[in-house]
Amino acid sequence: MANTNIDTSALSSIGLKTPPARKNKTELGQEAFLKLLTTQLQNQDPTKPLESGEFLTQIAQFGTVTGIQDLQKSFAQLAQAMSSNQGLQAASLVGKQVLLPGERRLAGAGSGISGAVDVTASGPVGVRIYDSKGQIVTTIDLGIQNTGRVRFDWDGRDAAGNPVAQGEYRVEAFTVTGGKTEALKTYISGKVGSVVLGGSGSETKVNVDGIGSVAFSKVAEIR
Length: 223
Hints:
Layout: H1 30-42, H2 52-91, E1 97-101, E2 104-107, E3 113-119, E4 123-130, E5 136-145, E6 148-154, E7 167-177, E8 180-196, E9 205-208, E10 212-215, E11 221-222
């Protein structure tokens, strides 16, 4: 606690023992503080009484330290409760489809990619699918779309209608405004296979099929 100018010699008069020096105890409990302060007032020099300002300063200083300690405990309890609640929510996602910000996932061999696009201005919207070599596999025309989140589905076939090989594919969404092509934010859908609960200082994560491990806070939509 900050220096409060309290006469610690008064400890013996109220039955409190000074801790051994080896313990290096620097904390003073609220009850002991009040007893010490009362004793200080009772034994003060009548010719040099404690100024009211000093008295109030001592009380305010102790109150501030106590308040901060209580606040820290409350925050710790709140953080623990939020972590437990987050874990329960994440566990309930197992087996469900979630929408995550991103552009890559495994596909092919009979499976495609579902996702969504954030449209920032009304206009034509398209989605390109790229393979692991950066080659365009196909383009999906979503037509004219209004602002908002628009979903898309790719069936896992190339532009000629042939099934593609299994591998990692990348999604790229775009719109054309004023003759200029503008990239749009994309989301990828996947099924939650399991959940890894976060420990001290770590966040709960969900393992999504075809995507991998993702922080629970990244989940944008649940279906």
